[in-house]
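Long-time lurker, first post.

We've been arguing in lab meeting about whether pyridoxal-5'-phosphate would sit comfortably in this protein at all. Half the group thinks yes, half thinks no, and nobody has a model to point at. So I'm putting the question to the forum: if I give you the sequence and the SMILES, can you give me back a predicted structure of the complex? Inputs are below. Any interpretation is welcome too.
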Amino acid sequence: MHFMKKYYLIAPGPTPVPHEVLLEGAKEVLHHRTPQFINLMKETMEGAKYLFQTSGEVYAFVSSGTGAMEAAVQNLLSPGDKVLVVVAGKFGERWLDILTAFGMNPVKLELEWGEAVSPDQIREALEKNPDVKAVFTTHSETSTGTVIDLEGIAKVVRETDSVLVTDAVSSLLAEPLKMDEWGVDVVVSGSQKGVMLPPGLGFIAIGSEKAWKLVENSKSPKYYFDLKAYKKKYPENPYTPAVNMIYMLKKAVEMIKEETLEKVWERHALLGEATRRAVKALGFELLSKRPGNVVTAVKLPPDIDGNKLTKIMRDKYGVTIAGGQAHLKGKIIRISHLGYLSPFDTLTAFSALELTLKELGYKFEMGASLKTIQEYFAEKI
Ligand SMILES: *Cc1c(COP(=O)(O)O)cnc(C)c1O
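Top reply:
Settle the argument with this. Predicted structure of the protein with pyridoxal-5'-phosphate, as C-alpha cells:
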C-alpha cells in the first residue's frame, strides 16, 4: 500500500537541523572583513565557549570534524614526538592514522571495540611512558556507542606534563563535558552532530596555557590550520570563514543557551535510556560495555543482515539509522539520540525497526519495543 514517505535522520551525524537554524543560512552573504560580520563572529565565537564550558578561545575551521583533529595534531606536536593514543574503535584509529601521517611516535593503548578506557589504564600507561607530550582520547567512540570517563581521565593527566586532547565530535552537547572544571586541555568537535547544524564547521577549543605552550613550540608543517594565525586574527579567520554557517551557529548557540546545557544533556539521556530498554525488549544486546547517550550500538543475531536491515529502513520507510563500521559492518546497527531529536523520533525509529525485523523473519512480539518506550516516557515525561 502506498504511503507518504517522510525523511527521518536518526544517525549519529549528520543530524537534523531545526528550521529556525536553516533559515539563518538563507541570509545575505556578508563580506567577511566588514564590521557587521566581525561583530557577528565575535558574538558567535564568544557564545560558543558555553558549549565547551571553557573561557579559552574556540576556533571554527571550514572543515568537518576530522579537519579539527588534524589541526590538533599539527599544532600541538613536532615530528617524532611521543604521544599516547587510545584506540577502541574507528575514531581512535583515526587519531592513530593522523598521528602516523604527521610523523609522530604514538604509543597505542588498544582495547576491544565496545570497551571504555579507564582512568587507571591511562595512569598506568603514563607511568610507563612519562615522556609523552599528549594523550589522545575519544570522548564518545561513535563506532561502538561508548563514552569514557573523561572527567576521571582529566584528573590523571592534569597531574602530569602531558596535555589531554579529546575528540568530542559526537559527544559535545550529548554528554556532560566541562573543559575548564575538569581540566581538559584541547577539545575538537564538528557542526553536524549535537550542535544541530549542517556539516561544514570543525571546532577546536584550547583551554590551557599548557596547550598554548605546545602550540608555540610545534615544528610540524602546517598552513591552513595554523592556530597561531587564527589566534592573531581572532575573532576573525585568517581566510574566508563559512559566513552563512556562522549565522546558523549563532542561532544554534542562542537556542542551546536558552534551553541550558543541563537540559540538553537530560534530553539525550532520556532518549538513550528509552533506546537501551527497547533494545532489551526485542531480545538484543548492546555492543558497548559503557554505553553513552550519543548513539546506541545494537548487536544483531547472526541470521539478521545489518546492511539489509538499514537499507530497508531507509528505502522502504524513510528512516535513516547507521550500520556498523569496519569489522562490525552488517553485524550491528546504531540508533542515534544526537541533536535535534524528540521522543517521537525514537518511537519512529523502533516502529520502522520492528516492521523491518518482521520482514526479515525475526521472531519477536510485535510492539514490544514500542510498549517499553511508551511506558518509560509515560513515567519520565
Ligand atoms: C563524526 C565523528 C568525527 C568526524 O567526522 P567528520 O566526518 O570529519 O565530521 C570524528 N570523531 C567522532 C567520534 C565522530 O563521531
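For your lab meeting: The CA atoms of residues 11 and 321 lie 5 Å apart. The longest helix spans residues 261-281. Whichever side wins, do check it experimentally.
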